Structures are given as structure tokens and as C-alpha cells.
Amino acid sequence: MKRLRSHFRRRTETPTKNAGHGLLHSAMIAANLNNGESANSKLLRFLKDGFYFDSLTTAHYNNQGVFCTDVANTVPGIMMEMCMSSTEDTLEILPAIPSDLSKGSISGLKAKCQVTLDQLDWDLEEGSVVCKLTSDVDQTINFILRDGISSIESDADIENSDLGDIARKINLKANTATELKIRLAEDGERNLALKKTAVASSQSMTSRQQLRLWTEIWEHAGEPARRQTTGFMWTWESPMTSQT
């Protein structure tokens, strides 16, 4: 992950010909890499380089060059990604918050796990986060906060997570608002990839089934890491053993 972030930083240090969509793509990638500082710097460029008109509509290029709504429509989505990310059974809050936004609030975000983040208030300097969740269905979700969770106060049933002290399993009832009052741990962000298997592939998801036979063959041979190349396809797997 350290190398990936370094590569991303070098690539995005090169100007994107002052086109808004290039900055938007870079900011979205930064948010999904949990790189709040990088995402923040790109969002600030829209303000500093003249992408906005007085009406808050936007331009395709800097200095208000060529009317285009790409920036106006996408910046709110990037800010949402910086405040919350989710999967079908996981909700993570504040995945990419920069130091400039150590205190703030946001409301009304819909997660992929059928949960609405009704309200989120955070003060990272004080080490406190308060959020209110409403689920569409009865379910248990993995709730993640990478800065580490020291304690949670809530009426909901809460269990420890396999991910350690950066996460909890929270049992949510359908259409019932659940408030979480969180105290943050003091020793900072965790690396969720540590000692987990990393997978990289140039394949589409639909063609990965073809590799299962190769996977079984290599596992039977007892190889801890494997690589198979055929034409334009490659796959590689290996356990993460260090922070880098």
C-alpha cells in the first residue's frame, strides 16, 4: 500500500492539463486509497484555479474555461466518499478525512449495506465521533473507524470484530434509529491489509473462474505465492507481511 500511494502521488503531481475531469478522477482515487490529504489538495484546486462561476456552476477548464457541470456534480460525491465508504455488509466512517477537517458534520448518506447515515459529527482533536444510523432491514454490519475505537456507547447490541479494535459488529433493527457515541483510540490509524492475502489481476470478474483450476493446482503443490500468465491475463497472490 505504501508503494501504491507513492506511485499515485508521483502520477498526480503532474498537471492534468487543467481539465476538471482529470482532477476529479484523481480525487476519487485518493479518497478510495484513504488518502485524505491528497483528495483535499485536489478539491482545493477547483477553488483556487477558477473552476467555479459566481453561480456555483462550474467550468471544464480552469479560469472558467468552457461551461461544464462535471465538477459541480462530482465534488459532493467525492466529499461523501471521504466521510463514508461501504460494502454489502460493512460501513466505514471517516475513511479519508484530511487534517484540515478534524472537526465537522454531514448528514443523509446512503450506504451500500442498506443503511442510512442520518447524522455524523466528529471532533478528532477531542477524540470523539457521534453518528446515527438507520437500517432498512434487520442485520449485523461491520462498523469500521480506522483511527481505532476505544469505546462505543449505544443501545444496540455490539460485538467485537475479527478486524480488531478498529471495528465492531453492530446489530441493527429495521427502521430504527441507532446512535453511536465513540471514543477514539490514541495510537492512530491501522493497516487493514497487514497479514491478509493481497490479490491483483488484469482480468475481468467474469473470466476469473477460469483460474480456479490453476489455483487448486498451485495450492496442491504447496506454493505460498503464485503467478500465472496467459496472453493479457495475469494474477498474483501473496500474504501481506509488513506495513509496506
Structural features, described:
With 244 residues, the protein is of the alpha+beta class. Helices cover 25% and strands 34% of the residues. It is built from five helices and 15 strands. The protein has helices at 2-13, 20-32, 36-48, 70-83, 212-220; strands spanning 59-61, 65-67, 84-86, 90-93, 103-110, 115-123, 128-135, 139-144, 149-153, 157-160, 167-172, 177-184, 197-201, 226-230, 233-239. The protein has a five-stranded mixed beta sheet. It has a five-stranded antiparallel beta sheet with strand order 5-6-7-12-9, with no helix packed on it. It has a three-stranded antiparallel beta sheet with strand order 13-15-14, covered by helices on one side. β5 and β6 (115-123) form a beta hairpin.
